[in-house]
UniProtKB/TrEMBL annotation:
Family annotation (Gene3D superfamilies): 2.40.128.10
Organism domain of life: Bacteria
Name of protein: Alkaline proteinase inhibitor/ Outer membrane lipoprotein Omp19 domain-containing protein
Lineage of the organism: Bacteria, Pseudomonadati, Pseudomonadota, Alphaproteobacteria, Hyphomicrobiales
Length: 134
């Protein structure tokens, strides 16, 4: 009986100390973390068939399950007014992609084209193509 009491007390002390003592989180291994592949940003040549102007834009890091960062420099406004204000690339279930500004307003709606890239479908007057530059 005495052995049972001592064993039960030891189990209780162990359980209480396990609950009350601070738990340490696992350390991040820089070798393993550094070897995890990150997608490189995808670059696009953005061209306006109407005005014959072009610029380079970049689809970057994921910001949510369906959205990525989007960066178009100021010279992209010559291709389409407001394109440089687009900050997110959001892929919809129907295959369309919305390029939206920081407030969430759509700047362009694009869809996969016949070749390796995208074509604008909204606004209707946007005759713009995004071709992969990588």
């Amino acid at each position: 009986m005495r052995i049972f009491t001592v064993a039960a007390a030891a189990v209780m002390v162990g359980a209480i100390s396990w609950v009350l003592l601070p738990q340490t989180s696992p350390h991040v291994d820089p070798i393993v973390s550094g070897s995890i592949h990150r997608d490189a940003p995808q670059r696009f040549s953005v061209t306006s068939n109407a005005g014959q102007s072009a610029c380079m834009a970049e689809r970057g890091e994921p910001v949510s399950r369906r959205s990525r960062e989007f960066n178009a420099p100021a010279d992209c406004n010559a291709v389409w007014p407001g394109l440089a204000s687009a900050k997110t690339w959001t892929e919809n279930e129907d295959g369309t992609v919305i390029l939206a500004d920081a407030s969430g307003e759509a700047v362009l709606m694009i869809v996969a084209g016949d070749g390796p890239g995208y074509e604008a479908i909204e606004p209707a007057e946007a005759d713009i193509a995004l071709r992969t530059a990588d």
